[in-house]
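Protein: GTPase Obg
Species: Agathobacter rectalis
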Amino acid sequence: MQTFSMRWKIMFADRAKIIIKSGKGGDGHVSFRREKYVPNGGPDGGDGGKGGDVIFLVDKGINTLTDYRHRRKFAAEPGQEGGKKNCHGKNGEDLILKVPEGTLIKDAASGKVIADMSGDNTRQVILRGGKGGQGNQHYATSTMQAPKYAQPGQDAIEIEVQLELKVIADVGLVGFPNVGKSTLLSRVTNAQPKIANYHFTTLQPNLGVVDMDEGFGFVIADIPGLIEGASEGIGLGHEFLRHIERTKVMIHMVDAAGTEGRDPVADIKAINKELEAYNPQLLKKPQVIAANKIDAIAGDENEVISALRAEFEPQGIKVFPISAVSGKGLKELLYEVKNLLANCPKEVTVYEPEIDPALSFFKDEPYAVEVAADGAYEISGPKIEKMLGYTNMDSEKGFAFFQRFLREQGIIKELENMGIEDGDTVRMYDFEFDYYK
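Structure follows.
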């Protein structure tokens, strides 16, 4: 008696392009106290509220990006303007965007990774709302006791992002069209996937959970049929190759009966070539071969299976003759997959961020660098002020992105040309740090 089963769920949408916008900071207010017996009261304009952040949140109850296919623009709430009597404007509401686990958020213009909503990263602020402007009470001086100026709130940031769902599955099931992948899944589940005799029968990756004995289970992704040239974007192959990147083990499925007139050895080599062209690291994953359709041959072995064994088993890739129709050999195949998974790292592949959208948004703003009276190197200007407002400098990641921005914009080079040395102080408005090369 076989001791596994599969639960079925279908991926309907795995890509979407949307525009997200943080909330503008509320403007500072200009007002003056008007009290009885105090005809010339001082300034009491309140600060504006902070604009809302755009936050992405993993929701394990959803598994597609369908919600983002029919709506293009999403915006957080702006902060309110400050009021009289030092009243602070209300902060804008944050915008929470829920996505499936495994969603990659990329800058649509550059294709660089902003965030990977995988592993422990279940909640991330992608765009910070603008800081509220200061009210006129902050601008009173001994020489100007009635300032009629208040600071405007920082602008909102609007960017276009590409959302890509990279399936988080332990096992990727790959093979040319019509080798029986959908039949295999239909054999071990009650689902009835569409089975037809043409390329890309399965137009979306299908996820299933294989439950085995002793509480062990794994997630398997049926990757749509690949064709030669997939890594170059031919057909739909390039759309699906990315789903294999997170898998730990790959099952190559081939037609051992030769009913399609194909050479299974050549097919596996062709698919591995596409995988390598797309990402060479994919070939380092453990592989196993499912030689399907043995119900259509005489006995359990034929020249095709012998050729597969001779070619791949010396490379450490085992061959399992199976019949997706009768179920023969499936138990042995799945137990081999279980053993391979037991030796794989437990961590999910998580892509490192490559860009902070706030830092790129204001890269063309001016700035100035000068040496202050106390010897500190002061960097100022709209570019720096805005960056500080939109970057979380208390976080190691935020500070690292800011340092990278300073380097990319040539500011670090300019400091070095001015003679800055290790240990010298760099000041940017209220933020200071010690320079080290």
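Remarks: The two ends are 65 Å apart (CA to CA).
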